[in-house]
Write a structure and sequence with these properties.
single chain, binds flavin-adenine dinucleotide, 8-stranded parallel beta barrel, 7-stranded mixed beta sheet, alpha/beta
């Protein structure tokens, strides 16, 4: 909870930066304009060429990263196997899993001596490939048994693989402890000084910035551990040197996400109340010792927040340590807002009369940023999509940093010889003070050459940590080195000639390299389905309309229908059905697509209603409106693709056609937990297939449904083809399904109510009508010991507690391997303790209330029962007085079979497993439900096998298990979880259709004119 003693108070958020999603071409052209006449690229090539040639003359040793990735690029199955082993093997605690993982990864790759490509290490690579393929013979199948000899052999292979990965990792880590790292740094400094043969200048030479490795904090305990480790490192660095200034002293790099588990834009108040005092304590140490402390740059959604943090800390530094020049941060050039960030940083420094050290990097999270934008349906990408654009931005930012020399000491972090040469030229022409930077284990060859110039200063970013902590960092570096576009990668490839390697990036700006998130989906049968538009909640300009809509929304009262209304409406709909069904399918599709577009444009308004009536959090509301938009567009396309009349083959003299019609009046009954998405999904599917629809929303959320029905009328759905009937299930629902005009029922809700409807339909006279039921689940996640606990806990928290656990896909049962269970449970306990439970209208809220008093009483009763019958593992403390809040909680059960019923709230059950993972899967199947399943393992073959064994509709591997996307993860289960077909999938519409074949004897009138005229004789 926010510390009341914190001197830092979050000011109201204000936009300091321009909009991130401006057209890429415009941003790059603006950057290029600032570089006009700033550089002579012929000279850049002239400076860089000898460095490149010297490095290529002395290739790095075989086990160096560059060489290894040359032999086994990450795009190959061997490279991928190495990377995945590197990521996981060292953390696996039990031998069985380690063997299975090694067998799985080495087994799928072809480490074949003959397949080794040409290169300086061909012979060594060939030998190692032979060794690996020989070793593989000792490995059993991934989960296979194998005899004693092979098991003994397997252990040896695994031990050797572990050792190899440790060696690989060591290339990137300066030491396991800060003291070890500092000793190594001393050695490297001496070597460098010797190389310069006394030419060392006090102002130049090698400096270090230490980085304490690890995953980001998930709990307060993690954060405290990191804080202690940073504090200890600063102490050690301070003791180990007497430096004249932070610029020449060794320093430290810190990650704010390591110091606080909720370093997020949505948690501004807590960031100021809890994180900043921690950072301040480190600043006091660093400033007192007069050394450099730099805040690393992380993901884009924290960019604005990071500037607010900088400003607040700077204000305090200005009064406490006004002479200290060691405070700094990293700026990522790949951001479309990078130039504005540099200006904003300079402005903050100037306003507080300080001088900052600013490290310019290109950026390490490019792939993640692109994925996030696509998933979120954002307007554009916050980072450039061409490598050259990032390079241009880097140079433009460099120019700007140098221009702000009065308040900024620039630090240029790059391993790219072209970039280095350009920077040296630019900085020297302006007589600027600066330093270069590189990562330990990277760019050593190039810097060996660059540093022959005694006037160049270079700081090495030096990770420190044990093997277990370096894995995420190691994988980042493997990806960075392995990317085809990366300079380091191309440097190691002699087929890339020097001109190309050092070519100027400053050509004209190009259009984005891949489609905007709106156009993510490829054309299908000539139709381009637009992705629904999302909102970047971290960008004020995008969030403001949402906040305004929530504040302005008053939930209207919707009149309840009577059973007489039902009878009259069903007659009216039955009358309207024929005309609607006779409209060509393309026309119906166009209307539904128009509805999708209208909804897309009214996202904020619908979010307001969802917050106020459905009590959903802002993030959930945006996701829900998007899902409804996707349903409209997807089913419109599917209808056009799949429901057209189809000519069938047959004998000559006859024509055959298959036609898809609506069935009549479909009754759609939807739940309150997705009052818009599920409501709209059912209704538009039934409509586009040609049915008239009687829609009964959940009693708790009629206003959202009524607004959607109005929107569908506006889009062109006739009033006699769609009607809303709001009222209790027992009366209105029951009379709808019992009505003689009811030609089909589409229902989403509890298994129990689905059974009642099924029985009612069975007892009804007249036709047997289709029944589509989507019900609940006892959804499980199986975690083995190769999984990454931090990733598991992120997925668990999102899947079990988001939406207050009121999703049918929500995780109810975590089944975690005994060897890692204690650690995972501890982390879940910690994550529970930092969840915000409260008013759903606030951005900071993670978990809102349950839907109504009945739900509150039911969930609370179950929690009370579990507190008696099971072991409470952790529970969130709730301080908000907002009504109907249930504290998210986790309980341990002794066995899977102890789980009997779905608790529709934020309650997680945890069971430990040991032994055979397949029998765990069978036990989960025995629960009888089959909706969603999570699998967390790095053993790919195991994940695939479990997925095959699972009697479950939606299986998610190594991610959360909620938020199925229309057309991407068609949603729906089997067993007690539903009848299918899957919503948002290609088979859904058929269930709403009546099929008709039309056969015409074309020879009836006189004879077969077509055949006689010489046309083809049948198909
Ligand atoms: C001392 C130091 C500290 C660092 N600290 C941070 C930090 O705090 N935060 C952080 O994020 N990174 C940090 N990095 C990592 C840094 O981002 C990468 O090492 C750097 O991007 C590699 O750039 P390069 O000039 O060496 O290589 P190059 O090969 O010239 O550039 C590679 C970079 O180009 C960009 N890129 C690649 N493909 C594309 C594309 N298609 N479109 C647009 N851009 C593309 C990416 O940023 C990629 O990393 C640090 C690096 C160093 C050396």
């Amino acid at each position: 909870m926010p510390s009341s003693s914190s001197p830092f108070v979050a000011a109201p958020q204000q936009a300091r930066l321009p909009y991130p999603y401006r057209p890429e071409v415009d941003v790059v052209e603006a950057a290029l304009a600032t570089l006009q006449g700033q550089m002579d690229w012929v000279q850049v090539i002239r400076s860089g060429r000898p460095w490149v040639e010297a490095v290529r003359d002395k290739p790095a040793p075989f086990w160096a990263m560059e060489s290894l990735l040359r032999e086994y690029p990450i795009s190959s199955s061997e490279g991928l196997a190495l990377m995945r082993l590197a990521e996981a093997l060292l953390r696996v605690p039990d031998v069985e899993t380690a063997i299975a993982l090694t067998a799985d990864q080495l087994g799928r790759a072809e480490f074949d001596a003959d397949s080794v490509v040409d290169g300086p290490h061909k012979m060594l690579a060939g030998i190692s490939a032979s060794a690996i393929s020989l070793s593989k013979k000792f490995l059993p199948g991934a989960d296979g048994e194998g005899g004693l000899l092979s098991r003994l052999g397997a252990k040896t292979v695994v031990a050797a693989t572990v050792r190899a990965i440790q060696l690989l990792g060591r290339q990137f880590v300066l030491g396991r402890t800060i003291h070890e790292a500092m000793e190594e740094a001393l050695d490297q400094r001496k070597t460098m000084e010797n190389a310069r043969r006394g030419n060392a200048d006090a102002a130049t030479g090698l400096r270090f910035s230490y980085d304490m490795l690890g995953e980001g904090a998930r709990t307060e305990h993690d954060a405290e551990r990191y804080l202690a480790s940073y504090a200890n490192a600063i102490n050690a660095i301070a003791r180990g040197q007497v430096a004249a200034s932070p610029e020449t002293a060794d320093g430290i790099s810190i990650k704010l996400s390591a110091l606080f588990s909720r370093y997020e834009d949505g948690q501004r108040e807590r960031v100021f109340g809890e994180l900043l005092p921690r950072v301040w304590s480190l600043i006091v140490q660093a400033a007192t010792a007069n050394l450099n402390l730099t805040i690393d740059a992380e993901e884009t959604d924290r960019l604005e927040l990071s500037l607010d943090v900088l400003d607040a800390l700077a204000a305090r530094i200005a009064t406490t340590f006004p002479k200290w020049t060691g405070f700094g941060l990293a700026v990522q050039a790949y951001q479309t807002r990078a130039l504005a960030v540099v200006d904003a940083v300079a402005e903050i420094a100037r306003r507080h009369k300080l001088r900052f050290m600013v490290r310019l990097v290109k950026g390490a999270y490019w792939d993640g940023e692109i994925k996030r934008a696509q998933e979120g349906g954002l307007v554009g990408y916050p980072v450039f999509t061409h490598k050259e654009h990032t390079d241009i931005s880097y140079l433009a930012c460099a120019r700007s940093l140098i221009a702000h020399a009065d308040v900024i000491y620039p630090q240029f972090a790059t391993h790219n010889a072209g970039t280095i040469a350009a920077i040296l030229q630019m900085a020297r022409s302006k007589n600027a003070a600066f330093e270069m930077q590189r990562l330990h284990g990277m760019g050593e060859g190039i810097y060996r050459e660059v540093m022959r110039d005694p006037t160049v200063a270079c700081r090495v970013y030096a990770p420190v940590g044990e093997h277990r902590d370096l894995l995420a960092y190691l994988v980042r570096r493997l990806l960075e080195n392995g990317a085809n576009s990366s300079f380091v990668h191309q440097l190691a490839d002699n087929t890339v000639d020097v001109e190309r390697l050092l070519a100027s990036p400053m050509t004209t700006a190009r259009p984005p390299a891949f489609p905007m998130p709106a156009y993510l989906y490829p054309m299908d049968h000539g139709l381009q389905r637009r992705n629904s538009t999302g909102i970047d909640l971290a960008v004020i300009a995008e969030r403001a309309p949402l906040d305004a809509a929530v504040a302005a929304t008053v939930v209207p009262v919707i009149r309840e229908a009577t059973t007489e209304d039902v009878i009259a409406t069903m007659v009216r709909l039955d009358g309207g059905f024929t005309a609607w069904n006779e409209r060509p399918v393309n026309e119906r599709a166009a209307i539904i697509r128009r509805a999708g577009d209208l909804l897309d444009a009214r996202l904020a308004e619908f979010c307001g209603l969802l917050v106020k009536e459905g009590h959903k959090t802002l993030g959930d509301c945006v996701a829900e409106v998007r899902e409804a938009v996707d349903f409209c567009r997807y089913y419109a396309d599917q209808a056009q693709i799949r429901l057209q009349d189809q000519v069938l083959p047959g004998p000559t003299g006859e024509s055959n056609e298959l036609r898809m019609n609506g069935r009549g009046v479909f009754v759609c009954i939807s739940p309150w937990n997705f009052p818009l998405a599920i409501f709209a999904g059912q209704v538009v599917a039934a409509l586009v297939a040609g049915n008239a629809v009687a829609a009964k929303p959940a009693e708790q959320t009629p206003a959202v449904a009524a607004r959607m029905v109005e929107l569908l009328y506006t889009a062109g759905v006739p009033k006699d083809a769609l009607a809303l009937l709001h009222g209790p299930g027992e009366t209105i629902g029951a009379s709808l399904t019992a009505n003689r005009h009811c030609s089909g029922v589409c229902f989403t809700g509890s298994t129990q109510v689905a059974k009642i409807i099924q029985r009612a339909l069975a007892h009804k006279d007249g036709p047997i009508v289709p029944f589509i039921a989507e019900t609940g689940g006892l959804n499980a996640m199986i975690v083995d010991s190769s999984a990454l606990p931090e990733q598991v806990v992120d997925a668990v928290v999102q899947s079990a507690f988001r939406s207050a656990g009121q999703r049918c896909s929500a995780l109810r049962l975590l089944v975690v391997h005994g060897s890692i269970a204690d650690g995972v449970i501890e982390m879940i306990r910690g994550a529970l303790s930092v969840l915000n439970v409260g008013d759903p209208a606030l951005l900071a809220t993670d978990v809102g209330p349950v839907i109504d008093d009945e739900a509150y009483t039911g969930v609370s009763r179950n929690v009370a029962r579990l507190k008696k019958d099971a072991k409470l593992l952790g529970e969130t403390a709730v301080s908000s007085r907002f009504p109907r809040l249930v504290a998210p909680a986790a309980f341990e059960l002794a066995s899977i079979s102890q789980l009997k019923e779905e608790i529709f709230g934020p309650v997680l059950h945890v069971v430990r497993w040991n032994g055979d993972v397949d029998s765990v899967m069978h036990e989960i199947n025995d629960l009888g439900y089959g909706l969603t399943l999570g699998i967390q393992t790095r053993i790919d073959s195991r994940a695939q096998r479990l997925a095959r064994l699972a009697r479950v509709g939606n299986v998610y591997i190594n991610r959360n298990m909620i938020g199925a996307v229309v057309g991407v993860q068609p949603f729906g289960g089997e067993g007690l979880s539903g009848t299918g077909p899957k919503a948002g999938g290609p088979h859904y519409l058929f269930r709403f259709c009546a099929e008709q074949t039309l056969t015409v004897n074309t020879a009836a009138a006189g004879g077969n004119a077509a055949l006689l005229a010489g046309e083809s004789g049948g198909h």
